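Minutes, methods subgroup
Present: GH (chair), OT, SY

1. OT presented the first of two proteins processed in the latest run. Sequence and structure tokens recorded below as shown on screen.
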Amino acid sequence: MAKKDYFGLSWIVSLILAIIPVTSWICGAITRFTEGKIVAGIVHLVFGFTIVWILDLIFMILSHSILRILPL
């Protein structure tokens, strides 16, 4: 089963949060920071309203998990 994203919420609630750009930006950055991935959190803060938001949305729909591309 895929890891639950956005604070351990179910994937459908996470999907709803991912659809809204502002909540996706905030929740995505907080999620990455709480996972200890500082660089990924900063990248999400800087590029969260562009390609990262679209990729998070696509990954949430297809794999029920947000995009985790940076292991840092």
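2. SY then presented the second protein from the same run.
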Amino acid sequence: MKIFKNRGDFYIPKSDYKSSKEARILHIILVFTVIFTAVFLVLLSRNYSSAADFFGNGEVTVTQESVTEEVLPEIEGKTNYLIFETDDFEKSIHYIYLLQADKSGKAYKFCALSPKTLINGEKMIDIYAAGGGASLQTKITEYLGIQIDYYVAFKNSNFVNFCDKLGTFICPIYKEVKFSGGDSDDKYTIHVKEGDETLDAKNFSNLLRYYSEKEKNYSLQNEVLMRAYTSLFNEDNYEDSDSLFRLLIKSSSTNITVRNFENGKDALMVFCKMSNDITVYSAEVNYEKNELTQDSIKNIKGYFS
């Protein structure tokens, strides 16, 4: 039957003879293709170990995108630090803590102490005033029975300037802190709300001082320290570690030397680049009339020996 009379006319056959013939041809081709493919695969599996061997006689290679992971240096041993902050006139200690870099265990260990701790009846600030950081380091080493390798003593303003270069960090605050206090020439103010707070250098210093002096909550002080170290020891600060070390020397009184810094560069790299995988511990202490209890001293030895 013919439809239309002009150019482009097309026809609809009166029977389906032509279409059924085409279908049979297609079925035959399909069957042939399936049989040929099956025979081809059997022969290929018998004579060649892979398609690459068949097409290129072993010369065809498969290119895979390689992901290179930085190999960090192997480090071991433990290093103990005594770190504290004084007022700008060095008349009082705002806070003081022990820090251990456990290179074998890839861990930080902290122990916040009371600035009013008595060592054989002598106040720590008096020991510091008489002989400096080295004298305080020696006295605490003897008193606790652990080896303290280095000390770092900051004046308040110098600590804030130094930590400004390290950046800010997030710290959980379990209860709002709103406080103003201190002596007339050494006042400070801290206001942080409950929840996760971003602490800058000034708030970091003042919060440590508040927990140490006002609340005498050394557990919370340890928590702030743990958050700070695991956040501020990062890859960006590692890349800038040479200039940060020079600033540390200018900002503090310390027995850490350039050689000590260079020798510890591998450990610094590991702690900075593995910051999220570093384990943190804290040793809590108790006092009786400003003297550490014997259980507390044993606890410190267990962590820092």
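Chair's summary of item 2: Residues 17-47 form the longest helix (31 residues).
Next meeting: continue with the remaining queue.
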